[in-house]
Amino acid sequence: MLCACSGEQFKFEDAPRSPESLATRDFSASGLSSRTGDWESKFEDTQVDEAESTLRDALSLNYEEARALLGRLEYQRGNFDAAFQVFHGIDIRGLTPRMTRAIVERTWQRKPRTKGDIVSTQEMSMHSVSLLLEAILLKAKSLDELGRTGEAAKECKIILDTVESALPNGMPEGIGEDCKLQEMFHKALELLPKLWTKAGCLDESIAAYRQALVRPWNLDPRRLASVQKDLAAILLYGGVETSLPPQLQVWGATTPKNNIEEAILLLFILMRKVASREIDWDPEIMDHLAYALTISGRFEFLAEYVEQALPGVYNRAERWYFLALCYSAAGQNEAALNLLKKVSGCSEAKHKPHLPSFLLGAKLCSQDPKHAHEGINFARKVISSHDQTKHFMGETHKFLGICYGNAARACVLDSERVALQTDSLNSLNQASLIGHKDPELIFSLALENAVQRNLDAAFSNAIMYSDMVAGSSGRGWKLLALVVSAEQRFKDAETIVDLALDEAGRIDQLELLRLKAVLQIAQEQPKQAIETYRILLALIQAQREVQANKFHSEVSAERNLETQTWQDLANIYTKLGLWSDAEICLDKAKSIEFYSSRSWHKTGISLEAQSLYKEALVSFSVSLSIEPDYVPSIVSTAEVLMKFGKPSLPIARSFLMNALRLEPTNHEAWLNLGLVSKMEGSLQQAADYFQAAYELKLSAPIQSFV
């Protein structure tokens, strides 16, 4: 035991095996027991004093050092109760000033002393300081093992306070060469925040982590990275908002303003270390960074860091999939689809199909009609695979049904359109058999039935969807109101919108207000509609001023809604013959989005109402140059051409046939086609067209379903 105690680098795992501990014999005074091997003994203060006396005489140790060595032995044996009792006998509070002076003296002049220097016999050696710091650390660990974590953290904090008061500028180089001071301090730096976290004191834990990072304590890169990662994790998931103290706010305007920003800054530093190979790749760092940037809406930054990941961290399919998720979340679906196409490309043909990438591709394609056929291909690849789960199959059939519907609306041939519409409903119904509790699926089914004018089925699905989401979805209410408006029940539709306004979110509420105004126009209530539009514009303006930090998608949605509101107001004033007011509204709309086909279309409508047909044709041409397949401008162009007499009728018919190719259910196109046929003398054909226009008008919603 004497040999073990005298060794500076004592290893816990190499404890000497003695039949009986000096500190654990017969402890009847306190009643605390300690276990060594298969026997139990009691521990007496007199025998501890005996052991201390033996150690002091044999090794020339003082009282505190002897207790520190005895406590170390008891801790190493797993006798945490006995170890705590031994450590508790050391007067740490009284020794702290001497320890601080010893550390300061050590770090002052490290040159050899001259003969004239007076060496105080009371000065504590660095060996003693290291031994006592180790005793405090082991005392804290013993308390933690005994379930007294809060007390353990307070004991551990003594080490940090002692060393920090002696070394206010950090740990100097070389101080750990001939003593264990730096090693003990580093262990305490790592242990303290973990103890505070375990005790549930997250504020103190965060402060301890920051204390470990604000000064150069000579932590090796691995340890420093571990502290930075743990601090970022507790800032992200701790649920406690703690701003930086004033003394740490040294970056001015760029100082992190909240936990999320501070965590992101730490994780950026760690990712830079990974990129420079200062530390090894740690997937937890990327997980934390992905979470932090996701909740703050910075998906482009996340994509950049995924791209910086060194080769071998992700395989190619996983990297492309991860990047596609980032870009799609950032609203850059085209970039995401380009990456997903690589996963299904020739370079990956020999590898196992990456089904999540194909499913994501089908989902993104289902959101954009122009990618409908690519979405069908993605979905078929998932279906043809033999590794898909039941959930994957349900989701795949859902996206396949949506893509079939989008492809049908862009189809030229009637026979092909009918086939695609049938496939759409079949796929959606098949998906409902697998995942009948999926509200998104029920909404898609309601929408497809509405587009195909199956209004009863659409109404039933829309009601089911609203019940599944407990009436919390604005788009569900909107679809339900549009289905009711398609049945020409405008007052009932307005009532539904009024109910929805109390339940909808911010953006949905604005869209519902616009729908309410459109319904009021359909009921020939222009004054009420103008008032509703006024409220809508006021809300948009107020939200723009109050909420500065928004996602790009929200900002874009508000801009589009404001543009549409001014366009609708211009339409009202045009019908009322208030040309100057209509022009002001159109100028407002163009100031927000100049290249808007709808704004130029409304300009043409206003000019046509003033009998300025040539000027109207120019506006419609501008609208079609922006969006060649914009059906309202195609129909309006045909209407103006019809006013020029019989020579222009063939051209007008051509425009109307093109409009019907793009939108077969457009009743205005059928009506004007009937007028063209009537002017050409084809009365029977005109009657058929008028009949089609009438029937489609009876099931036409107040706004387009899609």
UniProtKB/TrEMBL annotation:
Checking InterPro entries in the record gives: NPG1-like (IPR043376), TPR-like_helical_dom_sf (IPR011990), TPR_rpt (IPR019734)
Keywords, alphabetical: TPR repeat
Bilayer-crossing regions: none
Q: Where is this region: Disordered?
A: 14-44
Extract the PROSITE patterns matched here.
TPR
UniProt TPR repeat ranges:
597-630, 667-700
A Pfam family hit: TPR_16
Instruction: Say yes or no: keyword Ribosomal protein present.
Output: no
The keyword Ligase is annotated on this UniProt entry: no
SUPFAM superfamilies given in the database record:
TPR-like (SSF48452)
In terms of superkingdom, the source organism counts as: Eukaryota
Show the PANTHER family listed in the entry: PROTEIN NPG1, PROTEIN NPGR1
Q: Provide the protein name.
A: Protein NPGR1
